[in-house]
Amino acid sequence: MDVPVYMEQPEGFIQGDRNKIVCLLNKSLYSSKQGGQQWNKHLHEVLTKLNFMRMYSDASVYIYSRKDTRIIMPIFVDDMTLASKSESALDNFITELGEHFKLHNLGPTNQLLGIKID
User: Fold this and answer.
1) Pairing state of beta strands 115-116 and 61-66?
2) Would you give the DSSP letter of residue 116?
3) Which of 23, 40, 71, 80 fits 84 for a cystine, CB–CB 3.0-4.6 Å?
């Protein structure tokens, strides 16, 4: 977090006087005001290290392009999909990304932002 953020103790964790003791957050929470910005900042750092470039015209789309391999990755909050002609490049990238984040591979994309994909 860029600034110190304090929160009330969560239910079931109350220690001491609830009105006097609060929690200092070590990292951002999913629904906090800074959470989305912190997530985007961290994701951008990781993707940049993996040689992805953010599109100038749409900051939610990243592109990897080396020799004849190209991967396009649109992102919506914490959901992402991958598009490439090379299945091995996708597998390698998913493995690399898995070293930085806990992933849930849902297989081929059937729907994206309410649009059915065949």
Assistant:
1) unpaired
2) E
3) 71
DSSP per residue, 52-103: -EE-SS-TTEEEEEETTEEEEEEEETTEE--B-S-HHHHHHHHHHHHTTS--
CA 78 to CA 5: how far, in whole Å? Answer: 22
- Per residue in 47-97, pLDDT tens? 999 999 999 999 899 999 988 899 999 988 778 889 999 889 999 999 999
| Cα–Cα dist 82/39, whole Å | 19
Q: Tell me the HSE value of 52 on the side-chain side, using a 13 A CA sphere.
A: 23
Under 8 Å between Cβ of 84 and 71: yes
Residue 24: is it exposed, middle or buried by C-beta count within 10 angstroms (0-12/13-18/19+)?
A: exposed
What percent of the chain is predicted at pLDDT more than 70? 89
Q: Name the pLDDT band for 109 (thresholds 50, 70, 90).
A: confident
